[in-house]
Amino acid sequence: MVAEDNAQRAVAALEDHILPLVPNLLEDLRLGIDVLDIGCGRGHVLNKLALLFPNSQFTGYDLNEDAIATATAQSQQLHNVHFQVRDTARLEEIEKYNLITSFDAMQDQAAPAQLLRNIYNALRPDGIYLMQEIHAASDVSGNLNHPLAPLLYTVSCMHSMTVSPVATASPAVNDLALVTGREKAFELLRKTGFTHIEIKQLPHDLVNDYYIVFK
C-alpha cells in the first residue's frame, strides 16, 4: 500500500514538482552526483531517478527484504542504481553522498534521531537532505482543523507506531510519537546539526511538507 501510494504521489511529481524545489538540483543530477534514498521500499523513486539521470549514481536502503528484492528486479535494465537490505540506524558512511532523500519514511523509524545523525555524517560538506513528511503540527491542538487529521492519526497509530519497533534490530522505540509534525521535525534536525532548513509545499499536495535541509 505504501509503495503504491508513493508511486502515485512522489514518483509522479518527481521531475516536474519535487526536484525543482531544491535549487540547481536538476542540473546537478544531469551532470552526475551520488544519491542515497533512506527507506526506499520497492524502489519506485530511485528507479525513476536512475532512468531520468543516467550520469548520477543511486543507492537505496530498506529493512524489508521483499521490498528490496522487488526493487532490484525492477532495476535490471539500469546500470546506475543499487539496492541493499540495511538498518539505517546503524549506517556508518562518512561524507559519501551529495543528496540523501527520504519519502514519508522518518516517522516509521525506531531511532529517528540516530538516523538523522547518520544522514548528517553521510552527507558531503555541501550536501542536501530532501525529506518528505506529513504536513501537520506536532501538537494535536494544531491539527483540529486539518481536513485529513483522522486519517493521519489512524495511519500513525496502526502503521508507524507498530512497524518502527518491530522491523529493526535496534532496541529503541520510536520517539516521534503520533504525527511527527513540523515542530518536532525542526527540533530533531537542529539537534542533529543542520542549521539551514526550509519547508516547502506543492499546490496540488495537501498531505506533505518537503524539507530542504542543507548541511
What would your notes on this structure say?
The chain has 215 residues and is an alpha/beta fold. The protein has one domain (2-214): Rossmann fold (3-Layer(aba) Sandwich), CATH 3.40.50.150. The protein is 39% helix and 22% strand. It has helices at residues 2-18, 25-31, 44-52, 65-73, 112-122, 149-166, 181-192, and strands at residues 34-38, 57-62, 81-85, 97-103, 123-134, 196-200, 208-214. Strands 3-2-1-4-5-7-6 form a seven-stranded mixed β-sheet, sandwiched between helices. The longest helix is centred in the C-terminal third of the chain and has 18 residues, at 149-166. The protein is globular. The N and C termini lie far apart (33 Å). Residues 166-177 have low confidence and may be disordered.
Helical content band: 25-40%
Give the count of helical stretches.
7
How far do the termini sit from each other?
33 Å
- SS content category: alpha/beta
* Main CATH class: Alpha Beta
Low-confidence stretches: 166-177
CATH-defined architecture: 3-Layer(aba) Sandwich
Q: How many discrete structural domains?
A: 1
N-to-C series of helices and strands: HHEHEHEEHEHHEE
The coarse overall form would be globular
Whole-number average pLDDT? 85
| Rounded radius of gyration (Å) | 16 Å
Write the layout of secondary structure elements.
Layout: H1 2-18, H2 25-31, E1 34-38, H3 44-52, E2 57-62, H4 65-73, E3 81-85, E4 97-103, H5 112-122, E5 123-134, H6 149-166, H7 181-192, E6 196-200, E7 208-214
Parallel strand pairs: 1-2, 1-4, 2-3, 4-5
Antiparallel strand pairs: 5-7, 6-7
Helix pairs in contact: 1-3
